[in-house]
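*** Backbone structure tokens ***
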Amino acid sequence: MNFVITILCGALSGYLAGMIMGSGGSWLRNIILGLVGGVVGSILLGIIGIGAKGLIGGIVVAVFGSCILIWLSRKIFK
């Protein structure tokens, strides 16, 4: 059941980041972006000493990381 919740949170995080950054994409792209964004966000915020607790905190961190990934991909591929 945790796997399903993780996938749903990843999809939600990727979707929210796409909306914030003005980037569209498929549901698969949103899931991947949200899951990888969660890892990136955790690492970046962990470096400066900020951690997330609970489901909402995890989604916020994943959205932050996903926004960073979208920004980086725009800089690299433009």
Notes: The two ends are 39 Å apart (CA to CA).
